[in-house]
Amino acid sequence: MDRGDELTVLFTQRAADLTHHPGQISFPGGSMEEQDADLQATALRETHEEVGITPQQVAVIGYLGPTPTITGYAVTPTIGIVEPSSALIIDTMEVEYAFEVPLEFLLDAGSAQHTQREVYGHKVPVVEFQYEGQRIWGATANILQIFRNSLIKK
Fold first, then answer.
1. Which of 2, 4, 25, 100 has its CA 20 to 30 A from that of 78?
2. Is the alpha carbon torsion for 47, 51, 55, 61 positive or negative?
3. Residue 150 has what DSSP assignment?
4. Total-model pTM
5. Structural domains in the chain?
C-alpha cells in the first residue's frame, strides 16, 4: 500500500466461519477460478472481492515462486503497489478485518522471530512477526520472509 510517506503491507484476518484457515492472518487472495486468465487475474479479483481494491488501483510489480503450505496448497504471491487513495471495503463474509504493517518494520531483521512448531510429530523451524498485537505466522510469515530475503539479498 502506497501511503504517501511510507509503504505498508496489507493483511487480513480471515472470517472465523470459513472452511479453510478460519481466523488466520493472511494476504488477500484465494483460489483460481475458471474465468481467471492467469494468476495475476486471480490475485486482483480476490483482492477486489475481499477488500474492495479494484484491479485498476494496483500496479503489479512481480511475483514470488510457488510456496507450498503444510495443508497442501501452493501459493504464488503476486506483489503489487496499491494507489495511495485506495480505501478498503471489507467483505465480512470472507474477512473479519484488515490491517497494515509498515514495510520498513518487516524488512528489519529484528522483526522476524524464529521459533519451532510441531507439525505431524516433528519440530520444524518457523518464523513469525508480532506487530501492534497482531501475530503473523504460518504460510503468511513464510511468504514475508521469502519476500524480505528477495529484497535484501543476503
1. 4
2. negative
3. H
4. 0.90
5. 8-152 (3.90.79.10)
